[in-house]
Amino acid sequence: MENFEIINKIKELKKKKNAVIVAHNYQRDEIQEVADLVGDSFALSKYCCSVKEEVIVFCGVHFMAESAKILSPDKTVLLPEIDAGCPMADMVTAEGLIEMKEKYPNAAVVCYINSSAEVKSHSDVCCTSSNAVEVVKSIKEKDIIFVPDQNLGSYVAKLVPEKNIILWDGYCITHHKIDLEDVKKIKELHKDSLLLVHPECKPEISEIADYVGSTKQIIDFAATSNHKKFIIGTEMGVLYKLKNDNPDKVFYLMSQGLVCPNMKKTKLQSVYDALNEMKYKIELSEEVISKASKSLDRMLKIF
After folding, report:
1. Are residues 224 and 295 in the same domain?
2. How far is CA 59 from the centre of its chain?
């Protein structure tokens, strides 16, 4: 089928199945076009709590669909591509976290939303890249175990020096592989551009950035800035909204390597098949949902 045919069939199925489609900013352009909401993990987390539809089609990666299920356990949550995972999320396990908690018994656990439901169930509070600093500031404990992203954790530690941040050795394979020298070269090439980067980038890259923020924060900054040219230091999918919302501005990708292969697995056919066959359903035990929901609910209550 042609794209327009698939899109029409998706719209028909969405009504028939009483479904809503959400998509992360890193999804393919055509997926963002058919979604009811496109956003970062924080925006999508809040949205999934409020929708009246009985079915949520989550165009993202596995941990995101799990979070939606935790927040809406009575709804059917579908992940169109079941093997769309997150290497960073896989870098922390519940067993490993339990061991670290035993080593630091007085520490609170702040868990980046990029983690499994099981890891969330052993955490005190979740955070996203947009609210990590505020979440850490809100915690009474001085010692904070931050999992799994060492780069986001380092960024938070710099902005919240009164806390002792204990970092987990995890990272986003897409953001982490960007080399500082390559970033310096593109800054030199586009001297009249502002560099906007995601805190999942290495600390030395965040240090030379003009702005550090989540995907939504980067989008908002670019939209409200009087500047006309920007170097974007996050996954290339964000360029779709940046260019659509700001046709009078110019955007350069910080590196051609800023592509998340897992985010790009979902295609229009995947969304159609998910609705048509009601696959792939996210299933979690009541115990995991009960425990993990506490960390997510605590995050949502802060904001």
Report:
1. no
2. 12
Domain limits for position 237: 174-253
Pair 151, 293 in one domain? yes
What DSSP assignment string belongs to the chain?
--HHHHHHHHHHHHHHTTEEEEEETTS-HHHHHH-SEEE-HHHHHHHHHH---SEEEEES-HHHHHHHHHH-TTSEEE-SSTT---HHHHT--HHHHHHHHHHSTT-EEEEESSS-HHHHTT-SEEE-TTTHHHHHHH-S-SEEEEESBHHHHHHHHHH-TTSEEEE-SB--HHHHT--HHHHHHHHHHTTTSEEEE-TTS-HHHHHT-SEE--HHHHHHHHHH-S--EEEEES-GGGHHHHHHH-TTSEEEES-TT---TTTT---HHHHHHHHHHT-PBP---HHHHHHHHHHHHHHHHH-
Q: How far apart are CA 90 and CA 296, in angstroms?
A: 19
Q: Which residues are paired to 214 by β-bridges? A: none
Q: Supply 42's token pair.
A: 């924080």
Nearest-CA neighbor of 37 among 53, 247, 117?
53
Q: How many domains does the chain have?
A: 3
Instruction: Flag whether pLDDT at 181 surpasses 90.
Output: yes
Could you report the per-residue pLDDT of 24-76, keeping only the tens digit for each?
A: 999 999 999 999 999 987 788 789 889 999 999 999 999 999 999 999 999 99
The mean pLDDT of the chain is 95
Domain membership flag for residue 16: yes
Strand order in the sheet with 143-147: 125-127, 108-112, 143-147, 164-167
Same-domain status, 48 and 115: no
The tokens describing 177, both together, are 């592989």
Instruction: List the CATH number of the domain containing 151.
Output: 3.40.50.10800
Q: Are residues 151 and 298 in the same domain?
A: yes
Yes or no: say if 243 and 251 are a contact pair by the CB < 8 Å rule.
Answer: yes
- Evaluate whether residue 99 is within a structural domain: yes
In a domain, 11, yes or no: yes
